[in-house]
Amino acid sequence: MVSFFNFQKGKKKLGLLDLEGALTARDRVGIQDFVLLDAHNSETAFLDNLKKRFSEDLIYTYIGTLLISVNPYKELDMYSKKHMDLYMGVNFYELPPHIYALADNAYHTMLTEANNHFILISGESGAGKTEASKKILQYYAVSCPSSALLDTVRDRMLMSNPVLEAFGNAKTLKNDNSSRFGKYMDIQFDSQVGSLFLCHKFLMVSIFLQGECSSVISINDKNDWKTVRNALSVVHFDDTDMEHLFGVIASVLHLGNVQFDGDTKGYAVLNSNAELRWVSKLTGVHVQILHESLTYKRIEARTDEVLCPFTVDHAIYVRDALAKAIYGRTFTWLVNRINESLENQDASRKTVIGLLDIYGFEVFYVNSFEQFCINYCNEKLQQLFIQLTLKAEQEEYEAEGIEWEPVQFFNNKIICDLVEEKHRGIISVLDEECVRPGDATDLTFLEKLEEKMGNHPHFVTRRVRSLSLMSKALSPLSSLCSTGFIDKNNDLLYRHIKEVSGSKNSIIRQCFLSDEVDSRRRPETVATQFKNSLLGLTEILMAKEAWYVRCLKSNDNKQSGKFDDVLVRHQVKYLGLMEHLRVRRAGFAYRRRYEEFLKRYKPLCPATWPHWRGVPSEGVEKLVKHLGYQPDEYKMGRTKIFIRYARTLFATEDAYEICKHELATRIQAKYKGYRAKGEFKKQKEAATKIETCWRGVQARKEREKRAWAVKVIKKFIKGYMTRGQAKTTDNSEYLAFVRQSYLNRLRDNLPKTVLDKTTWLTPPPVMTETSAMLRQIHMRLMVRKYVRGITPQKKAQMQLKIITSAIFKGKKDSYPQSVAVPFVDTRISQYITYSVPVVKYDRNGFKPRPRQLILTQSAVYLIEEAKIKQRVDYVSLTGVSVSNLGDTIMILHVANDDPKQKGDVVLQCDHLFEAVTKLSVLTKKQDAIKAVQGSIKFQFHGGKEGFVDFSTGQEPMVYKGKNGHLTVVSKDFRVI
Ligand SMILES: Nc1ncnc2c1ncn2[C@@H]1O[C@H](COP(=O)(O)OP(=O)(O)OP(=O)(O)O)[C@@H](O)[C@H]1O
Questions:
Q1: Are 108 and 75 in contact (CB under 8 A)?
Q2: 756 in a domain, yes or no?
């Protein structure tokens, strides 16, 4: 056994582990799978195991993938949502046997193999088939993802069950709620999404009404009534539909109460009209028509019509036939309506799980035509089971050349043939008897059977009007009472009874269409209809893969906890469970074509992954060896590998799951890389594109800019060339530009002071006039600003400067330099208006002597520094002479006639302009100030004369010249 990949995939759901543990522990009772039973040939061991488990409420046991369910007749806590969750996606053998495990496995196999499946639920009446089918449906309904639309379909589907049970089930001696119809439904799953639960469809095989049990303790009519009404509304029945439907049911009940008496001739007359009036009211058929139909037969003879009265027995038969027909057809109508409401409009591909819940085998004290049909159906399904499992299996081993010891089993084909064979089978004989002219009775039918099949090994008749079909496997088909076969098979409604087609009840109208009344074709007999629908069903099932649930009845008393050994042994026998087990034991749990097996599991072996180039069977051999399969675990056939134990396959499947994840991760990584590469390439391409685009845009912009520049330059040049002309379109822009740029430059280069006369930008010709105006305005502005900012002291000084200008401007070379030199008023004392240091040239040899020149309102003094307070050298001034050069010599002329005066005074004064100006103001002798060129003559006291000669030279100096004149050399200011 392969042990290195023993994983359990479903157990990741932690919350469920406790429950699961408890289940597993509890389930250790007996053996979960009969395949593991040592004494697999012993029926007693088989039963013991079932019983042991049953006593612990373990009602499910496997034979391989087949599920055996023993009816517990009590509610078990094993169908909750938690249980459903637990079984979801878990391998078959990982958890205790359960109907959910089978449902889940069928579902996952369907998804994996993408093909159709069906679950055949069989067993005798009351064994729990309907319950099992409901549990499967609920499991799918809960486990599949939901959406609003699907929920609606799901509700309808689940709700269709109580409706069908209400109308199609009846209490029988075997089962309080026995299905009297066969139900096949297709559950569709979306093949793409894989898990959508879509819709189902009923295929009705037949319905049988029979029995006299009316009260059932286990059924609460009041609650069920509510449930049914609610369910009907979910499957789209409105109030009118429901009124008509319940009208039909009530009419059938009233019809059953119609009684007949015999007249003197023995013909039937109505006992009372009351019931018939009710029927008439409920069905909407005139009471007269009903009356006539129930007591007379209408015989048409060419143009005439004759009414032929019924005997009482006959009338009762007709009454029951009518009631059956109304009920049966109404049920068919109901099924069709439910099918319509569940119809799936989506045509996309779906995979299907079919669910077949068919009425179980029935053996009553008296077994009639109904039991014949029901049990024939079960024989047929058993045949299908044998065909699909035992026979097909053995045939396959043979075809594949697998060593195999054939298992003996009873092939009930012989029984099926006995019933259904053309011309020779019981149904053919019955049909023949029904249609032949003359009086056919159940007895003549029995004689015909004896005649035709008296020698058949499985057919025996007894002269107590019964026939026995001896099926070794299926005993219930035996011992049938032939009474009523002819009538029930005929089930011909007398033509005029179909006149109910004129009913006011819409359901009855739809069930009895008038063209049927008019048709003269004889309808198919009941048995033939039944046979045909069964053949149709078999065909549907044969195209699908089968799963089996075998339901066993634990006892006949519907008693919980009771295990009737005889009854169960009987069922085990006729259901062929022992044979099935033997085949399973001898056989192989799983087989697959080499190609398919390899295709699925090749990732598990390096030699086969990713490709196996050789012969598939060799690849498989390599693969299973790599996986560690033991020789007894598998066999290699001609085209397939056969795996003996399911656990081997599950382990392989688990390994595959893990490997798939790894592969998926690898593929994902590769894909991501590929995507990233692609993305990068795309980005690069996009970047190149953007770059190209950007470059194009830039180039275009550049070109446009150049073109614009050329245009501007051209215009500029043209404007420049025509700048002197009057304003034209050519030069207007240029001139505006020139103006603008001149003004801008001018703004930044305006003269800052009023004295700055030089700073002014030369205007372009077009601005000459404007510039002059601007200059004037600017000057005015500056002057105004300057004037506003002048203090009284400054003003006084300015006035002095004006006087200086009047005296010296253009007359003395050093004057311009003096303009910016401010006069100083600090040299003023109490007595002195102005005092300035000077150098006095003494007439005796022109020796320079420092003196202070003091100016007052009334006189000019020359005093020595040390004697400042003494009034010395009073000068009575008559005029002042200066040279026109840049020297600082001034000669004060004094009045010669004043004896106190010592003659003219020659002074050198650094502040010449200031001193002379102030002197002139104080003495009011402005006109007496002279600027002389060359030499200045002066007079000494006593009438003597002297001269001062002025010249310019390199170095300024004052000295006594050879001619005895005072010689003054000054810098040449004009040169500077
Ligand atoms: N799994 C179960 N758990 C509890 N009770 C069950 C179970 N299965 C069946 N039963 C009981 O047995 C009764 C009969 O079951 P069910 O109607 O499913 O039988 P059946 O095989 O469908 O019969 P028929 O062939 O007559 O329709 C149910 O009404 C229910 O009380």
A1: no
A2: yes
Going from the Cα of 867 to the center of ligand 1, the distance in angstroms, rounded, reads: 157
Amino acid at 968: V
Q: Give tens-digit pLDDT for 757-802.
A: 888 999 988 889 999 999 999 999 998 988 888 888 888 888 889 9
Residues within a 6 A CB radius of ligand 1: 71-76, 123, 125-131, 175, 177-179, 359-360, 551
Contact status, residue 824 vs residue 914, Cβ threshold 8 Å: yes
Q: CB neighbours of 624 closer than 8 A, spacing ≥ 6?
A: 634, 641
Task: Give distance in angstroms: CA of 172 to centre of ligand 1.
Answer: 13
Q: Hey, how many other C-beta atoms are within 10 angstroms of the C-beta on 697?
A: 10
* Peptide bond preceding 610 in cis form (omega within 30 of 0): yes
- Record the pTM: 0.59
* Residue 458 or residue 252, greater confidence: 252
pLDDT-derived band at 703, boundaries 50, 70, 90: very high
Report the domain count for the chain.
2
For 666-692, letters b (16+ CB in 10 Å) and e give: eeeeeeeeeeeeeeeeeeeeeeeeeee
Residues 900 and 772 in one domain: no
By residue range, what is the domain housing residue 770?
Answer: 731-783
Whether 176 has a pLDDT exceeding 90, the answer reads no
Distance (angstroms) between ligand 1 centre and the Cα of 57 equals 15
Average of per-residue pLDDT across 380-405: 80
Closest CA relative to residue 931, chosen from 950, 914, 945: 950
Residue 746 and residue 831 in one domain: no
Would you state the structure tokens that stand for residue 71, as one six-digit string?
């009816």
pLDDT of residue 22: 45
| pLDDT at 5 > cutoff 60 | no
* Res. 471 pLDDT band, cuts 50 70 90: very low
760 and 859 share one domain? no
Among 219, 209, 222, CA closest to 256: 209
> What value does the mean pLDDT take over residues 549-576?
92
Q: Based on the domain organization, do 797 and 779 belong to the same domain?
A: no
Q: What is the DSSP letter of 830?
A: S
Structural element, H or E, at residue 769: helix 768-788
Strand duo 304-309 + 66-70: pairing: unpaired
Are residues 768 and 885 part of one domain? no
Measured N-to-C along each axis, helices 577-586 and 565-574 cross at an angle, to the nearest 10 degrees, of 60
d(CA 11, CA 85): 11
Which protein residue's CA is at the shortest distance from atom 28 of ligand 1? 128
Q: What is the CA radius of gyration of the chain?
A: 68
What confidence score (pLDDT) does residue 124 get?
Answer: 82
**pLDDT tens per residue across span 274-312:** 888 888 888 888 888 888 888 887 776 667 777 788 888
What is the number of the ligand 1 atom nearest to the C-alpha of 359? 25
Q: Work out the widest C-alpha separation in the chain, in whole angstroms.
A: 212
ipTM of the complex: 0.99
646: tokens are: 């399911």
How does residue 594 score in pLDDT terms, banded at 50, 70 and 90?
Answer: very high
- Angle subtended by helix axes 426-435 and 413-420, to nearest 10: 10
**Which domain CATH number covers 867?**
2.30.29.30
> Which of 130, 172, 355 is the best mutation target for the ligand 1 pocket, counting ligand atoms within 8 Å of the beta carbon and taking the most?
130
Angle at 551 between CA 549 and CA 553, to 5 degrees: 175
Percent of the chain with pLDDT over 90: 20
For residues 712 and 705, what is the distance between their CA atoms, to the nearest angstrom? 10
Alpha-carbon 397 to chain mean position: 50
Q: How far is Cα 394 from Cα 406, in angstroms, rounded to an integer?
A: 7
pLDDT band at 82 (very low <50, low <70, confident <90, very high): very high
Residues 854 and 760 in one domain: no
Which amino acids are annotated as binding site, given as ranges? 123-130
Query: Is residue 839 very low, low, confident or very high in pLDDT (cuts 50, 70, 90)?
Result: confident
- The CA 27 to ligand 1 mean position distance, Å, reads 23
H-state helical runs in 170-238: 221-234
